[in-house]
Every structure is written in structure tokens, then in C-alpha cells.
User: Fold this.
Amino acid sequence: MRAYTRLALAGFRRYSTYRQAMVAGMATNIAFGLLRMAVLVAAIGQGPIAGYDVAATATYVWLGQGLMAFVLLYSDKQLSDRIRSGDVVIDLYRPWHLQLALLAEDVGRAGYAAVVRLVPPVAFGAVFFPFRWPSAGTLPLFAVSAVLALVISFGMRFLVNATTFWLLDNRGVHGLYMSCTWVLCGLAVPIAFFPDWARDILWSTPFPAIFQAPIDVFLEQGAPGTILVNQAFWAVVVLVAGHLVLNRAVRKVVVQGG
Amino acid sequence: MAESVYVRIIGARLRGQMSYRTSFALQCLAQAVTQLGELLVILVLFNRVSALGGFSVNEVVLMYAIAGTAFGIADMVAGQLDQLPTYIRTGTFDVVLLRPLGTLAQMMTSDVQLRKIGRVGAGLATLVYAVNHNDIGWSPFTVLLVVAAPIGGAVIFGSIWIMANAICFWLVDGQELANTVTYGSSAFTSYPATVYGPWLRRFFAFVIPGAFVAYYPSLALLGRPDPLGGPALLGWISPLVAVVAAGVAGLVWRSAVRHYRGTGS
Assistant:
């Protein structure tokens, strides 16, 4: 356990080294937030849609701009690069569970992201736009929901990366994951904007659980209990799936040019 | 002489990309899905509202189709400039300077990403749909504009890409700022300029000539006056804007390259 705590701390420190990149990232984040705000505000100009008035929309956009970096919506390529280069063999030899080790590191990364990438856009939104704060009792629930979202997002990214064991080049799967996620998870438009039938289908996939779920908890839309149970279910599913996939993959690893 | 070198470079890049066939097919698909995902978002919004910024669903789809196709072409040709910071940080740009070929052309051919054809294809399909579902007064001029708008838009996007990434010669970590301008202008141009507030519009429509990619050409095709009060002429001059933008981008790149200092490592 101590090893995993250390890995989480190392993850935190590793990402805190790039300060200039952080400032640039913040500016980009805010610019995209403004663009997203404009389109949605124009849409709700004729009256609220699915419970989204200006305040709820602003909260959805600015909280979302932060959560996007916290859960890391877009797949990373670290593991797949190590599988391609064969370095993953070293990782598999180490006295740890590879999936848990990577999760620990990702938790550290997210911890840093919470400070520098989640708080600033939320503060920006709260200062410059009407903002809907939840009641004090909701905030702990939101924290739990955000952490579950992070775990599910990690689990899905792990699965995307693990396809490299079979394909050797996972850029296709990676690209497909990125191109679907932003619509399916509720980043492009709130899931509530979809027609009823599409909404039901979307909520039966793990995608809303990584993004729309914590926002819904924050906005107090829907029963928080149901949302958290849905997230807990998907967290278990993707982690177990990742574990099984890794077990199968290990039997298949070929050390290229070793 | 130089031309044949580029043909060979591009040929080699393309063959390289085809070597992982499954991955390549999936990457093309991913590009098409990205493009159609943006279309889906517009349709979901219009499922709830009847007009966006004063335009109907088919009119917005027309603007989106022109912008998306233009961005797809620009991304295929100039998207490799996103790698510039890596070239500068690792000192690989020295090698580019030593070769007897233009630096900009070398950077752009460093990896022509054929998979982006998926995006262009989906954009063109949307454009065909949009042209058929809008009331366009056909004349030789409008036909010419339908063809010229995505190409001119691609040149404008490409110029934006060059200028934005040139900032990395001064600021090595400037990539994300460049993204604000490149991917940000793609997001901006997909919707009518009337949707945005005055400050965003001034920046993305005129400082960066984003409004000339899709907004003004679409107004000209639809025969609609500009709700923002611009003259009708603006819809027809986007190829001219593209030529000017390309010229400025060339000058910016030249002066940026002069500022390059090796990393010294």
C-alpha cells in the first residue's frame, strides 16, 4: 500500500514541474469555455432546455472545463508507448500490480489537476457568470462522484491502451475513443438535451459516468444516490475488465528484438 | 528538382502510414466520426430550438459543412506543424535548416496524415447534403463559390496554423496557446458568427479572419443579408482574404525562423 501512496505522490510532483505549460493550458481552457458558453447560451436564449437556464449552463460549462482535465477525458498513450517499445516487460516484472500502480499514479496526477485545472475555470465561471452553487450537503457527494468518474475514466483509458498488446499500434482505437467520448460523455452538449430514447441508451454506457454524472450531482439534477450507484457499478466493471485483459495479455507478450 | 523531392517524401510518408492497416482504417473512421459527431451536436441542439443565432438548422449545417471540410483539408496539410515544439526542444530543427529545401515546406511534408481524409470525406458528404437542402439561387458565381469556399477556408485555416505555431520559436511551451487559435477558430467557424458575443466575435471573426471561412460565404450562397450589417460583398471576397492571409503567414514564418536559436544541447 505504501508503494502505491508513493506512486501517487510521484505522479503529483511529476505534473507540477511544468508550470509554463500550466499557464498556457489555463488560457486555452478558458477560451474554449467561452466558445462553448456562447453556443449553449444562444440555444437557451428562447427559454431553458431540460432544466438548463443560464446559471445551470454556466455551471455545466465551467465545471466541465475543469473536470475534463481532472478525469483526463482524452486517452493518454503512456502505457501503449511502453507496450510498443517493449519496456512494458520491465513494468510487468516489478513487484506491483501494474493496473493498480498506474491508477495510483493517475490519482496523483488528478490531485494536481484538481488544484490547477479544476479550481481556476470554476472560479472564473463563478466570478464572471451567474453560477449555481449546490447546498453544502451536496459537496461531499460531488467529491465522491468526481473520484468515481476519475477511476472509471482511468479504467477505460487502461483498456484502450491495453489493445496495443494485440494490435501493436493502437492509434486507431485511441483516435476512435477520443472521437466518440466527447459526445457520449456529455461534454459536447448536456446528456439531458438528447431525446429521451437516446438519453436512456447513453446512460446505459459507462461514458456519462465519467463526466455528466459529477456535473448532475453538483447541479442537483436527478437522485444523487442513483447516479453514484451507476458510477460505482461502472468503476467495478472497467477495473475488473482491465484486470482480466491484463492477465490474458501477459500470456501473449512478445519481447520484440529482446 | 525540388518538386520531385517532395513527391518522394510524401510518397514515403504515405506508404509508412499504410503499414498498420487495421490501425489506419480505424484512424480514418475516427476522423469521420469526429466530423459527424460535431454534426450530431448541431442536430441535438436543433431538436430543442428552432433557430440558432437567427439561422435555421439547414443553414447552420451549411456553415458547419464548409468549415469542417476546410478544417479537414488544412489539418491534413498543416497539422504536422503541431510537432514544431518537439523539433525546437530536441534541436531537430537544426537539421531542417541545413537541408537545401524550404523550412516551411519541409515541416508540412514531415508527416502528411492521410487518415484525415476521413474527416474531409465526411465534411464533403455533409456539404452535398447541405447544398441540396438549402434554397440557393444557382448561377455560375454560386457554383464557383461552393467550390472555392472550402478551399479558401482551408488556406485561411492553414495560414492561421502557421502563424499560431510560429509563436513556438519565441515560446517553446506555446503549443496550447496556438491550439486556442487553431482548434478554437475551427469551433468558432462551425456556428454562425451571430451566436457569439462582441469580444469573441471581434477576435475570431476579424483579427483571425474566421468569419471568411464559412459565415460570409454561406450568407452569399443563401442570398441573405448579414444580420451584423456587413456589406454583401464580404461573402465573395474570402478567396482574396485567403491569399492575403497566406502572404502574411509566409512573412511571419520567415521572421520567426530568423529568431530560431538552437537549444545548445
User: Anything to note?
Assistant: Residues 2-258 of chain B form one domain. The mean pLDDT of chain B is 88. The longest helix of chain B spans residues 21-48. Chain B has one domain: 2-258.
